Amino acid sequence: MIKSSLCKDLNIKYPIFQGGMAWIADGKLAAAVSNAGGLGIISAMNADSGYISEQIDIARSLTNEPFGVNIMLMSRYAGEVAKIIAQKKVNVVTTGAGNPKKYMPLFNASHIPVIPVVASTAMAKIMERSGAYAVIAEGQEAGGHIGDLTTMALIPQVCDAVNIPVIAAGGIGDGRGMAAALMLGACGVQLGTAFLVAKECSVHPNYKKMILKAGDISTVATGMRFGGNTCRCLKNSFSRDFIKAEYSPDATAQSVASHGLKAFKNAAVNGDVKGGNFLAGQISGLINHEATAKEIIDNLMEHTVELLKGANKWIE
Ligand code: TUI
């Protein structure tokens, strides 16, 4: 068993979070991860509070364990979603793609721990000052919206910068990644891509097939030219056209910002192999078979413990 303050504070068995993947992480997947001892997370992506309310009810009907909701801060519904989360007393809130400062008083008053995703030490310190319970420090190996630093460089620097728990994300796909993250100073991990192929994940089967087929160099980051909207996804004709459009002389930051949005849903819901934007992390090449959320978590824990127990093989 791994000892982590997260387990006691959040009432979870293992310090493993499932990432709030847009159009993918629903109430059914979150409940399966929570039932397996991790922290399942429902993605609020660009949906309104009605959808989130429904997904919270679905998760509650499938598990008695704690779970969270991820608010995507660029969404125009972020405010109404925050209110529903507070009303329904969801156990944990994570946030992504921005600064959640204006929602912190609401969650602090409702005693809901807030765990923002950060991509820099500066943002981690701002979040600590705003009353965040912990931060998820996410490196650019992750799928979806990403910052500039790698997990290897980001985690120890964030751990030195703040006195709240740090959860590592980005590039973690198995026990080796989890053990390394703990060695870098994190007290838990968040995995997205690895849970995308969970049997309980309702994403379109074409999405799962593409992850299972992917290798080490199958992902690319779009939106790098203007910054602020960089997204990692699988290479396909959508990503090639995106990068071509991005680097065309008449491209602007605005034209690039809105380019990929509709295509997330097209990938996750319709499985449109050519026109979809298949968000995925660099560890896609490590994911080779479908398994239940419980199998994924048990395997992860078993290998992490085995590696950490064997770590003194390096000491003479
Ligand atoms: O949020 C994610 N990944 C996502 S969200 C998403 S849906 C989407 N919809 C519209 C536009 C963009 C995305 C697809 N993938 N990951 C968490 C994450 N947050 N990664 C990096 C960050 C981040 C980056 C900068 C958090 C804070 C931040 O601070 C910027 C600031 O405000 O200074």
Name the features.
single chain; 316 residues; TIM Barrel; 2 domains; 8-stranded parallel sheet; 3-stranded antiparallel sheet; 11 strands; 40% helix; 14% strand; globular; binds ligand TUI
Overall domain count: 2
- CATH architecture label name of the largest domain: Alpha-Beta Barrel
Radius of gyration: 18 Å
Number of helices: 14
Q: How many β strands by DSSP?
A: 11
Mean pLDDT: 96
Order of strands, main sheet, comes to 1-9-8-6-5-4-3-2
Question: Which kinds of small molecule does this entry bind, naming each only once?
Answer: ligand TUI
In CATH, what is the homologous superfamily of the largest domain? Answer: Aldolase class I
| Backbone structural class | alpha/beta
Regions with little confidence, pLDDT below 50 for 5+ residues = none
**How is the biggest beta sheet arranged?**
8 strands, parallel
Q: Strand percentage, roughly?
A: 5-15%
What is the CATH class name of the largest domain?
A: Alpha Beta
Helix content: 40-55%
CATH topology name of the largest domain: TIM Barrel
What is the helix/strand order? HEHEHEHEHEHEEHEHEHHEEHHHH
Distance between the termini: 26 Å
Per the principal axes of the C-alpha atoms, what is the gross shape? globular
